[in-house]
Amino acid sequence: MYKASCLCGAVKFHLHGTIKNIIFCHCSQCRKAQGSAFAANGIVNKTDFEFIQGENNLSTYESSPGQTRYFCTTCGAPIMSQNIKAPEQIRIRLGTIESDITEKPMAHIFSTSKANWEDICGDLPQYPEYEPGR
Ligand SMILES: [Zn+2]
Ligand SMILES: [Zn+2]
Q1: Does the predicted model carry a pTM greater than 0.90?
Q2: Rounded mean pLDDT, 8-37
Q3: Using CB atoms within 10 A as the burial measure, which of 11, 44, 98, 100 is most buried?
Q4: Which ligand is nearest to the CA of 67?
Q5: What are the structural domains, with CATH classification, of the chain?
Q6: pLDDT at 133 over 90
Q7: Cβ contact 82:68 at 8 Å
Q8: What percentage of the chain exceeds 70 in pLDDT?
Q9: Residue 30 contacts residue 114 (beta carbons within 8 Å)
Q10: d(C-alpha 6, C-alpha 95), whole Å
């Protein structure tokens, strides 16, 4: 089980299953949403996601049709996103997780959209768009 929360602590949740398809997304939307070079995201089953508190303290933004990003209304921390094409999944922002996680990242995606000031390092595969299979 993983414990997670936003920056101010108003939003707290637990993850009861494994985190799948951990990727670093370098697309321009993720860069702006995180205020950083990339987003670190992983998928959890909606049935494995449990709000402890603060569900009503989330704001949403539909960044592209059917794709909704959730963030804390108080501190602005990005929490997760959901796509209507995969309603059984939640895409978690991994920086919210307080515990060490056992799953490993699998890829960099939208690598050719990266900021010109970023060097992508390491041995993970880099894909110009989504990872294969999405
Ligand atoms: Zn917060
Ligand atoms: Zn992205």
Answers
A1: yes
A2: 97
A3: 11
A4: 2
A5: 2-127 (2.170.150.70)
A6: no
A7: yes
A8: 100
A9: no
A10: 9
Three-state DSSP state, 40: strand
Q: Residue written as tokens 């768009």?
A: 129
Rounded to the nearest angstrom, the distance between the alpha carbon of 42 and the centre of ligand 1 is 20
Buried b (16+ CB within 10 A) or exposed e, 92-126: bbbbbbeeeeeeebebbbbbebbeeeeeeeeebeb
The ligand that comes nearest to the alpha carbon of residue 79 is 1
| Beta-strand runs (E) in the chain | 2-5, 12-15, 20-25, 39-45, 49-53, 58-64, 67-72, 78-83, 89-93, 107-109, 126-127
Contact 81, 29 (CB under 8 A): no
Ligand having the closest approach to the CA of 4: 1
For CA atoms 124, 127, 130, 133, the dihedral sign is negative
Q: What is the mean pLDDT of residues 67-87?
A: 97
Count, residues in the chain: 134
